[in-house]
Amino acid sequence: MKEQFSRAAMLLGDAAMERLKNARVAIFGVGGVGGYVVEALARSGVGELDIIDNDTVALSNINRQIIALHSTVGQYKVDAAKARVLDINPECRVNAHRVFYLPETANLFDFSEYDYIVDAIDTVKGKLALVERAQAAGTPIICSMGAGNKLNPAAFEVADIYKTSVCPLARVMRAECKKRGVKKLKVVYSKEPPVRPKKPCEEETIRRDTPGSAAFVPSVAGLIIAGEVIRDLIEGQI
After folding, report:
1. Residue 159's beta-bridge partner residues?
2. What gap in Å lies between CA 144 and CA 119, rounded to an integer?
3. 71-102 as b/e, with b when 16 or more CB fall inside 10 Å?
4. Strand 156-160 and strand 186-190: pairing?
5. pTM value?
6. C-alpha distances in angstroms, 176 versus 66, 162, 169?
């Protein structure tokens, strides 16, 4: 597998690549954002990935989720993602968990086993539970804020939660983190005001408040997150 990652090694060096190979990262949520995080980490040579999601691939996912193809519709997202990762890097250890992360399922995971945690889930309760568990375990975490109803991929920024603005989800997270005594939290968010959908969703299976989404927005958020994870994992190694 040395040649497979040779172009990355040219930039990062052998010591950094070895650290990535020995790293274990958990990605909670394998949708529009999380799927691209998984993709980039696999292609960067991260040696072990835990992917957590209980959703299945739907036709409505095809416009923005990298694991969503006509051939994967109906499959569990973690199963489709695992197959894709192993096709990218057969030596990667992939632990697929068919479960939604909520406060009620938090005890299924030992956060001290991970070198890094990525939050790419949708619910505020789940996000807060991830943050509290990660920080209690002393494990770095990065959270994705809202990517729905956005059209400007250049508007994403990396910041501490308390330095965010505009994003409605970040506003809620700021307030809830403050209540819980969370001192700092790295997030990826956008200052772009949410775009008002031009038409209602026509699918009966989707909630009325489900946001619209484009191919080029959640993908960018996911790749930014992956870049932050890689840089943090190899800090001091370049």
Report:
1. 187
2. 6
3. ebeebbbbbbbbebbeeebeebebebbeebbe
4. antiparallel
5. 0.94
6. 31, 11, 11
- Are the C-beta atoms of 52 and 99 separated by less than 8 Å? yes
pLDDT tens digits along 189-211 = 999 999 888 776 665 455 557 88
Tokens of 214: 């484009």
**What is the phi/psi pair of residue 26, to 5°?**
-105, 130
Distance, CA of 109 to CA of 20 (rounded, Å): 22
Q: Torsions phi, psi of 149, nearest 5?
A: 55, 35
17-67 pLDDT tens trace: 999 999 999 999 999 999 999 999 999 999 999 999 999 999 999 999 999
- The values of phi and psi at residue 18, to 5°, are -65, -40
H/E stretch holding 77 reads helix 77-88
C-beta separation of 34 from 118 below 8 A: yes
Provide the token pair at 150. Answer: 């956005």
